[in-house]
Amino acid sequence: MSIRLIAAAADRRLLDERRGTRAMTWIMAIMLFLTLLAAALGLGTLGAARLLEHQLAGRLTVQIVEPVERARNDQTMRALAVLRASPEVARATQVDRAKLAELMRPWLGEDGADPELPVPAMIDVDLGTGTDAAVARVTAAVRAVAPAARIDRHETWMSPVSDFMNLVTWLAAALVLLMASATAAVVILAARAGLDTHRDTIEVLHMLGSTDVQIARLFQRRIALDTLLGGIIGAVLATGVVLLVGMQIGALGSDLLSGLALGQRDWTVLALLPIAFALLAAFAARIAVLGALRRTL
How far apart are CA 258 and CA 50, in angstroms? Predict the structure, then answer.
């Protein structure tokens, strides 16, 4: 299928509908604006979900829940020794008591810093591989030397967040497909309306020897150009919104939300969407016009 987005001057004069063309352009600008926002949301959420999975894979927290301080310290030292000697462990670091007191401040206030308060010892662990087998071996090794140890796998308690991000990604993808379908429907309606408006002109072209394919090209070029122009307008507006939201997210300083930032590949996908929608519009217009011409003319 041959598609030229820039129609000849004679073609534009033949199917000149300035008011209709403007309406088509702004409709496509709105469609692409919403589509790019949905796509940016989906791509950003997908990147954040992948970053979250990468950060949480193989992350463990070991708590030594022992009320007697001497026994707690002894089990903590033995657990640290076992962890650092394990080939599955890349890093094992005990969390400082002052940091724990700071984390508990919203709930305990200044009492969290009381040295008499039996606060469990905590150890942050990074595994080389976050497989279930590696986690099971490390868990067994720690509990063998520290019976009071509790092992929390970060991936487990953050899985609802990851599932929610995946859901948002799929919803965004569904919105993009829905907007693409709506765009095709709008193009089909516009093409059929154009056929009704220019029925007399099309009959003259047929008498002069023009084929259905040649007439369809007139419509697909004009509609593709309107879609591309509207898409560029919508893309510029959507890019401004995405950049503004990105600046607001960056100002929050959240590690989780920072993963929503779009990468170079994401921006490339967004930049290609107006072109993809212009090609979709040209194809839909061609199919609609050829079908209508075969049925009625």
Answer: 12
Distance (Å, whole) CA 35 – CA 233: 13
Query: Which residues 6+ apart lie within 8 Å of 107 measured at CB?
Result: none
Residues in the chain: 297
Tokens found for residue 22:
């403007």
- Helices 69-85 and 132-145 sit at what angle, rounded to 10 degrees? 140
- DSSP-derived 3-state class of residue 86: coil
DSSP letter assigned to residue 59: E
Contact between residue 36 and residue 270 where contact means Cβ atoms under 8 Å apart:
yes
Q: Write the pLDDT tens digit of every residue in 171-203.
A: 999 999 999 999 888 888 887 777 767 676 776
Q: What are 63-92's pLDDT values in tens digits? A: 888 777 788 888 888 888 888 888 888 888
DSSP string, 110-176: GGGG-TTS-PPEEEEEEESS--HHHHHHHHHHHHHH-TTEEEEEHHHHTHHHHHHHHHHHHHHHHHH
